[in-house]
Every structure is written in structure tokens, then in C-alpha cells.
Amino acid sequence: MHANKAQSDYWTSPAGLKWIEHEHALDTAMAGMLDMMLDAAGINSTDHVIDIGCGTGASTIEAAWRVPDGRVLGVDISDPLLNRATNRAEVAGAGNVSFVLADAQTYEFSDQAFDLLVSRLGMSFFSDTVAAFQNLARALNDRGKMVFVCWASIAQNPWFSIPKYAAEAKLGPQPKGDPDAPGPTAFQDCDRVVDLMARADVSNIEACSVDIALTPPGGVAGAARAASKVGPAARVIKAYSGTKADEAAIEDAVRLAFEEFDDAGGVRIPGVVNLFTCSR
Ligand SMILES: C[S@@+](CC[C@H](N)C(=O)[O-])C[C@H]1O[C@@H](n2cnc3c(N)ncnc32)[C@H](O)[C@@H]1O
Q: Ligand 1 pocket check: which of 5, 23, 50, 54 to mutate, most ligand atoms within 8 Å of Cβ?
């Protein structure tokens, strides 16, 4: 797992494990994004699917319902997240699912074993994205395709920008980083990713930005809690060693700002993701 040791360390650290702690909020918030991606994938009921960076398994299990006569392999670099995914799949009774703890960039998948690769937010963390695309393309059969979503920019996603600005107002600017470095928004620039895909020699490459709505549970308070604990606000709080009081003040500011997205049906936060597709 050396090629992506930093990611394996991150996703087994307390910051990564927040995906388990806030699993219900995150999965509920991002359910529409998942449906949009799986609908775009045009899944057949017999497909053999790989789900890259499957995390706690929501996408793997949802894909499994769509391939009753096929199977789904969830792949993730984080042991604790994968344990949680395995447990959820058992409880859900998804019998056509299995999981492998692996770095998807380097893992030797059986050649041409899969019809479809999907990933909700799991493809933008590779240290060598071209090598990862090449490795994953080898796992697809001749008709195989990849369909995956990644975040567009922070500025296009109030789910990120509001908590980020609240945390910066309280503690200070987020330390500058390389926008293309592995991370949640590393695939914000569709043209850059299309170029990486072309260099990996995959075909029929397409990319588009899609408007989505995030639908977190628990009203504005629930939305503010999840958005402050996972994402850029959490990174600012960590960088400045923010106190519990700082965290509470930031969450409060986010709650107030999120009120504009509250309506009778619950909280709906507009956002944008980039949808990428290609063939082997
Ligand atoms: C933002 S989370 C998304 C999790 C899940 N797809 C979801 O939507 O709930 C990104 C996931 O990618 C995984 N990941 C990061 N780098 C990886 C790699 N090189 N190989 C496999 N999984 C990786 C992380 O462990 C994490 O679970």
C-alpha cells in the first residue's frame, strides 16, 4: 500500500473515521448524488461491478440491489471503513457483495473481470491518477465502462464553502495547498481530469458538471453538525488546534447560514459534482 500510504493513514485516522461517526448524515445527504451516478451508469441486472473507494459501503449496497443477478466488489484502502461496509452489507442481506482492502491504484484485479466501475467521491485521492486509471481499466472487460462522480469546486458547493468561511472567520485562513493534490476536490477541473484519462489511454471519455441537492437529515442543526465535522471546516479547526468552544461557535454560524436552505420538506443544499464516464 506504499503508493498511497498518506491516504491509508488519513482514512484510518480520527479524521477519516468521522465517515463512520456521521455515516447516516452523510449517506442521507448524498443519496441523490448516488442515485444520479448509478442511473447514469445504465446498470444491467447481471453486471459485475467494482465500487472504488467504497468507504462504509452505501454505494456498494445500493449497486448490489441494482444487479440482482450480478455482483459488486467494494474496494477501499481503509480497514475500519471496510469493516463497517462489510457489517452493513451483512445486516442489509446483500449476498452478492464482497470487499477487498486494497490500494485501487496498484491492486492486481483479475484481468477483464468487470463490466462496470462506479465510484462516489472515491477516485480523486490517487498519488498517480494516470497509473490508477490504467490499472482500473485493465480490470474492465472489452465492453466495460467507468462512471464516477467527484466534487466540483468548493466555491460551487455551499456544503463546503459556508463551513470553510465560518471556520476561517473564527480561526484564520486555511493553509494554502495544491488544488490538484489528492483530495476531495482534486477533480474539480473537468479538463484536467479528461487529460489524465486520455493519458491513461481509456476511450469515449466524457465529463460534465451536474447540479445536485444535498439532503442532510436533522434539519439545519443536523446539516450544520455534519458539514462542520467533515470537510474544510474540520481541516481549518485541526490546523489551528481549535477548541471545543471554537467548534461550537463555527457550527452555530453554519447553522444560521444554512437556514436559507431550509424549507417545508427539509434542508436542501444546492451543489455541483463532476460526472466522468469512459470505456476501457
Ligand atoms: C470521500 S470517501 C467516499 C466514500 C464512499 N465512496 C462514499 O461515497 O460514501 C473516499 C474513500 O476513498 C478511499 N480511498 C482513498 N484512496 C484510495 C485508494 N488509493 N484505493 C482505495 N480506496 C481509496 C478512502 O478510504 C475513502 O473511503
A: 54
